Amino acid sequence: MTRHVRWITTTALGALLLAGGAGCGDETVTPPPNKVDVGWTAFASGDLDEAKTQFESALADDPGDSEANNGLGWTRLRLDELDGAITSFEAALTNGFTGPDPDAGKAIILRDRVPLDYPAAISAALAALAKNANFVFSHDTSLDWRDLRLVLAHAYYATGAYGSAGAEVTALGGTAPDSQADDYPRQLLAEIERLTRQYGG
Length: 201
Known about the structure:
Elements: H1 3-26, H2 35-45, H3 48-61, H4 66-78, H5 82-94, H6 101-112, H7 118-131, H8 145-158, H9 162-171, H10 184-199
Helix pairs in contact: 2-3, 2-4, 3-4, 4-5, 4-6, 5-6, 6-7, 6-8, 7-8, 8-9, 8-10, 9-10
């Protein structure tokens, strides 16, 4: 075999190898989208049914996924499935969720759900604020620490802890009335209601 023929053969073989390598490289497998991420995207867009489907699918794969439980809790809250939301938030906490989100969700539900459970609402709100005093819900920034302070103000007032309710009013930038005033409870409630209208809690 002449040198020229050997060069052509070698070059052709190299081209085949390169072509084969390129073909293998093009056969990359795209991983499926993360179901929890897809769920939060749907949640943010207001597609709560899709969000619920994605979070439940993630939990079918891994029942201990604390972020999926947290997402399902908030989705159920928005769907007014309050008992289910509480169950999901508790599952998130049991499975190691360290942020304030599940506690915040529980606090909001427990203040308003019938039967009312103001002591539990207070405990949940305090737990969330202990984890982050400047809490802002990353998936809906219109909900933040002010909402938790309003939960506390309402719950303290409802349980007759007027001094604690007044402290929450002050923390929200409101004006706590004179505790010696004859109509102190009425004035305090009026200020709590004003702050609720202001912050949308």
